[in-house]
Write a structure and sequence with these properties.
The chain is an alpha+beta fold. It has helices at 17-26, 34-42, 73-83, 112-117, 123-137, 150-157, 160-166, 175-180, and strands at residues 2-5, 12-15, 45-48, 57-60, 92-93, 102-103.
Length: 192
């Protein structure tokens, strides 16, 4: 039997040699009772966060102490990034004039969608495309035919019908107008 000390209360305990060797090998502590073991493992001490800007008080068990104690991962990241900066990020503004997005990359546009939309980045180009579609089909084009330019179109004109009016065309009736507001007109063959 060998005498060892309790980790919590420092009381001398007699243990068999094989138990002592086993605990040393597994890096376990010695306790005189279950109560001491529980008190040691649940014993928390108040520590201040090492982040100077935070300085928050928090509880931590003795087993969880480390060389640097922070209240959260974000505090640890903040301190480490300030001590060891990797590189400064350079932000660019998207090349598409009407999308003022800041992004960090080597390319001109912030996304592939923005690159696709850059072709339609002026109201005059959008109106030209709508007029060309009218000349080809001989009718007022529907919004479904222009899904690619719907975002910049709505940004400039507010709605599809406003864009048609700006292009000098009569807008299509909406579903609500078809249901409730019937318009009496004369067809090409002469009947109403």
């Amino acid at each position: 039997m060998i005498s060892v000390k309790c980790r919590q209360c420092n009381k001398a305990i007699l243990k068999e040699l094989r138990r002592v060797n086993e605990n040393l090998k597994l890096r376990n502590n010695f306790y005189c009772s279950r109560r001491c073991q529980y008190e040691y493992q649940t014993l928390k001490k108040e520590i201040t966060c090492e982040n100077i800007e935070c300085g928050k008080l928090f509880l931590r068990r003795p087993k969880a102490y480390s060389t640097h104690n922070y209240c959260s991962r974000s505090c640890a990241i903040h301190v480490n990034n300030s001590k060891f900066p990797k590189r400064e990020s350079i932000f660019k503004i998207c090349a598409n004039k009407y999308y003022f997005k800041k992004f960090n990359s080597k390319v001109k546009y912030c996304s592939m969608e923005c690159l696709r939309l850059s072709k339609w980045h002026t109201p005059s180009k959008i109106l030209e495309v709508i007029k060309e579609a009218y000349d080809k089909t001989g009718r007022t084009p529907s919004r479904r035919e222009f899904e690619k330019i719907s975002k910049p179109l709505i940004r400039f004109f507010g709605s599809w019908n406003n864009a048609l009016i700006a292009a000098g065309l009569t807008p299509n009736r909406s579903h609500s107008q078809r249901m409730y507001r019937r318009v009496n007109t004369t067809a090409q063959d002469g009947h109403r």
